Amino acid sequence: MSFKITHLASKKHLRSNFCCGQDSLDTYLKKQASQDIKKRVSTVFVLIDDPDLTVLGYYTLSSYTVKVKNLEERFAQKLPRYPELPATLLGRLAVDQAHKGRGLGALLLIDALKKSWEASQEVGSLAVIVEALDQTALNFYLKYGFEPFRQEPMKLYLPMKSIKMLID
Question: Which of 53, 77, 146, 164 would give a disulfide with 141, using CB separation of 3.0 to 4.6 Å?
Fold first, then answer.
């Protein structure tokens, strides 16, 4: 068996027993993810232990627009003088409780950052944006270099330049 991160295939991947401890993240994977994929508002990636099709974790990526005035001044001053600029939203990231403590969250995050970096080479994106649901999630993202928005400390960003250094 080996870990594999792939696009969610709603009729193939087993997600009915997924439980990460956050009802909103569990419900999203079980009930909303397939609809978001069909409507092209989000892409959902799942972690499985191949060939087992049980979802161990997942994350979502989508386009996002960031207000430049909300970013830290030292980062914002280097950007073009537009009020809003493109970014990538890492909307959700979760690991099933039965598999926590195995480094799977980090594995998912690095994969999401790598995919975001690669996509930014084709479609502009200045950073990856996340919104931490709680202090544990906040600490997780801070550990990887994410920085809080000025007025929203639970909303964070990681510039593509930093992502490039992290994934190289």
Answer: 146
